[in-house]
Amino acid sequence: MVKQKVEPLRGKKVLVVDDEPDIQDVMKLDFQWVGCDVMVASSGNEAIHILQTQPIDIVISDIRMNEGDGIDLLRWVRQHYLKNPLFVLVSAYPDLSEPEARKLGALTVLSKPYKFDFITHILEQEISGSDYSLIS
Fold first, then answer.
1. Which has the closest alpha carbon to 26: 94, 122, 115?
2. Residue 42 belongs to what H/E stretch?
3. What strands lie across the sheet with 58-62, from one edge to the other?
4. Domains within the chain, CATH numbers bracketed
5. What whole-number distance in Å separates Cα of residue 56 and Cα of residue 97?
6. CA-CA-CA-CA torsion for 44, 96, 33, 26, nearest 10 degrees?
7. pLDDT tens string 25-67
8. Each residue of 89-114: pLDDT tens digit?
């Protein structure tokens, strides 16, 4: 499948937070392909440092990481970050249900492995103000 440029995402600043370098690399390339500026962090603590120095529009974060997990990062963002970015949690484990993730302030929680096209669809629907909850 050929990836298409996703207009609503073009120019957005994305922070990918994952302790697996391979996932960081793939996500960085995928988001760059759709026109985003991408930064990566290996932990929640590293992500907080980046968020304190850079404006970020979208955070894609793993849940389970050493040195600051994704849930702690989400809580920090919602309490301290002036501009609340769109926040997507991902995990290979059933750590959190979608309603629990939304209650914490995440847009959604996705299970690994996930399809990049699904992430971009959710983000572009949120940016454009459409309801993506009806996606099967």
1. 115
2. none
3. 37-41, 13-17, 58-62, 86-91, 108-111
4. 13-126 (3.40.50.2300)
5. 25
6. 70
7. 999 999 999 999 999 999 999 999 999 999 999 999 999 998 9
8. 888 777 778 888 888 888 888 888 88
Using alpha carbons, select from 79, 81, 135, 85 the residue that is nearest to residue 107: 85
Whether residue 73 is predicted with pLDDT greater than 90 in this model: the reply is yes
Q: In the structure encoding, which two tokens stand for residue 96, read together?
A: 């959190």
- Predicted TM-score (pTM) of this structure: 0.85
Strand pairing class (108-111; 37-41): unpaired
> Is-contact 71 104, C-beta < 8 A?
yes
Assigned token pair, 92: 């290979």
Amino acid at 5: K
For residue 21, is the peptide bond before it cis, meaning its omega torsion is within 30 degrees of 0? Answer: no
